[in-house]
Amino acid sequence: MNISIDRASQFNNTPRIKVLGLGGAGCNTINRLSFLEVPGVELIAANTDRQCLQANPASSKILLGSNLTRGLGSGGNPAVGRSAAEESYKELIDAIRGSDLLFLTAGMGGGTGSGAIEIAARIAKSLNIPSLSIVTVPFAFEAGRRQHNAAEAVAALRPFTDTLITIPNDRLMAVASEDTTLEAAFGLSDDILLKGIQGITQMLGEPGLLDVDFSHVLRLVRTGGGTYISQGYGDGENRAIHAVESALSHPLLEDIQIQQAKGLIVKFSGDLSIAELEHAMHYLQARTSPETEIIPAVNTRERLNGQVMVTLLATGIGATALEYTPIPQEIPAVKVREEKLVEESPLPLDISPHSFKSAEKELDDLEIPAFIRRGYNQVERAVAYHG
Description:
Layout: H1 7-10, E1 17-22, H2 23-34, E2 41-47, H3 50-54, E3 60-63, H4 66-69, H5 78-87, H6 89-96, E4 101-107, H7 112-126, E5 131-137, H8 145-157, E6 163-168, H9 169-175, H10 182-205, H11 214-221, E7 228-234, H12 239-247, E8 263-269, H13 274-285, E9 293-299, E10 308-315, H14 339-343, H15 353-362, H16 377-386
Parallel strand pairs: 1-2, 1-4, 2-3, 4-5, 5-6, 8-9
Antiparallel strand pairs: 7-10, 8-10
């Protein structure tokens, strides 16, 4: 029997990647990413602030908790943000479903992003969709409640996302010049998200001499721990090594311990020789653990005017070195909620007991993640707080 394989068609079925930004900071990231027009990536904005959401150019938008907040925001209260996401779980399911890989982004410390990102991650987990979360945490001068909220939000998110990168806002100030605008500084953190999206899509987008497929990416993402995604360029003598050096030296990821990575995919693009590839791989192997699984990919068809581009995806780094800074001593240490308590966190279909019974009959349990079918007390507390 003769079997004909159309190699080009294998790469037409590219994975569906979605980016969900939650809250003010998350939606600002979506806003900036929308102007970069990353092909094949769907951008979704979700917020409790109707006015902010209306101004966002995302292709999909979700007003979280319209009944709870009436589109007026969460008032900086993560409990309200969380309950708003719980109220809008159907819209979140519809937005997330169908994606092969989900990027979540939010700013920790406020209300909507801090409270809602955990719910989004839990929904993705219940749908068996791998998620990669990139979040920012407050400046040191934002002492008090925002620091406390951020620590709790990161702790709550961690069990439900496959990989997590936290970026202290203070690092933005450290790598930016004194005359850098605040918007430009936040653009540096967006660059990590953009490089991650571009890196994965470019890894899978074109056939080469050595290829990686989406199953490789998923397997590494699901190893858990910290994740490093970056790109680098090199030219001149030792250009392939210079490209690896560049990919390893993003200013916001400078403290990442790459030698702790459990798995690493490295893709070389450009007209490099076998000797250049060998030298670059030796250079990379010398900076990783002998136990690190390194999967190389090469695309010599892409012409980069004499340059070599390297895309790195490293996972399983443990607690990423961009971990959240310790809470100031005057703020009580946050105790991570036990799994039992997290699983019992309620989501309302309605806040009245009578309407709960009628609504329950109308909903298909297969459409509702298990953690949502627990009860309704939390939204009542949020409503009482919100007024």
